[in-house]
Design a protein that fits this description.
Length: 300
């Protein structure tokens, strides 16, 4: 069955980005000139997703407004003859069909996904986490969907991470099946380094089957006292095959200040408008470190 629906859990408070996120949803923080969430919605649309559900919380209005029409702004841009900006603004509202549901309590990622049950019904669906911005030639979700089409079942995006960072992720025990594809045998949410089964971390892209919902309904709180999707998928593995895919692309952890900064620099260097002056600025700032290889990336 074709995967048409995607769920975006966006109810998180963004405490790692305070005070910026006091009244602005973290998903609306801009990477250069586009809010984080727009990059991820664009990835979903490019992968063929037709319907998006935002699982939101209080104080996320800005996110809803961003994907709505903006009559005053549009007429102002029209009057000023700013056609390019006008079509950019319009295109955001027309991109995809968006639905909203509130996660009334912050009970964890698994709970957020459970809030999507009525929207998803009996179909396979995708989950995309907005903190992970993935820069890739083929959209990361398309890569996962290819594995889904081939093997069926649940598919998790995987990435090898340094062992000292593994306790920030869900971690899998998996056996390789074919190029980049694994069969996932077991998984654990944010293990201690000493208890991690591998260096393969789960990254914020999932293709899930509706079989996850009855499990989530009964799922006890796990790590951090939260209902964890990793624990539910672990249970699902008793009945259905779980696959992992080491995606091809560069992931930026934009839920983290350092990751966000790196993503900003990386994205800027890829854009023709910043490629000259900004690169020069970095060279000057780095001064003696200038012999480090600062590659001028081809303007996109
Ligand atoms: C969530 C998941 C975790 C996964 C991570 C990827 O954790 O619970 O298994 O590895 O996303 O970004 P969070 O980063 O929301 O704490």
């Amino acid at each position: 069955m074709k995967v048409r629906k995607a769920v975006f859990p966006v109810a998180g408070l963004g405490t790692r980005f305070l005070p910026a996120t006091k009244s602005t949803p973290k998903e609306m923080l801009p990477l250069i000139d586009k809010p984080l969430v727009q990059y991820v919605v664009e990835e979903a649309v490019a992968a063929g997703i037709e319907q998006v559900l935002f699982v939101t919380g209080r104080s996320k209005r800005a996110l809803e407004d961003h994907f709505d029409i903006a009559p005053e702004l549009e007429s102002l841009l029209y009057d000023k003859g700013k056609d390019k900006e006008l079509s950019q603004v319009r295109q955001i509202a027309e991109m995809v069909n968006i639905f909203y549901v509130r996660q009334k309590q912050a009970l964890g990622l698994g709970h957020a996904i459970l809030c999507a049950k009525e929207f998803v019904c009996d179909e396979p669906f995708a989950v995309l986490l907005g903190d992970d911005i993935i820069d890739s030639r083929i959209p990361c979700l398309s890569q996962l969907l290819k594995v889904y089409e081939r093997h069926g079942g649940t598919v998790l995006a995987l990435e090898k991470v340094p062992m000292e960072n593994i306790s920030a992720y869900g971690c899998v025990r998996a056996t390789p099946l074919e190029d980049r594809v694994y069969e996932v045998l077991d998984m654990v949410e944010k293990p201690k380094k000493s208890e991690a089964p591998s260096d393969l971390a789960i990254i914020g892209r999932y293709v899930l089957t509706p079989g996850i919902f009855p499990i989530l309904e009964k799922q006890e709180p796990g790590k951090g006292g939260e209902i964890q999707i990793t624990d539910a998928i672990r249970t699902l593995a008793h009945d259905e095959p779980i696959f992992g895919y080491e995606f091809d692309g560069v992931r930026h952890d934009c839920g983290d200040k350092l990751g966000f900064l790196k993503a900003t620099v990386d994205m800027a260097l890829k854009r023709a408008e910043f490629n000259g002056d900004f690169l020069e600025f970095l060279r000057q700032r780095l001064g003696p470190l200038d012999n480090m290889e600062l590659k001028k990336v081809n303007a996109s």
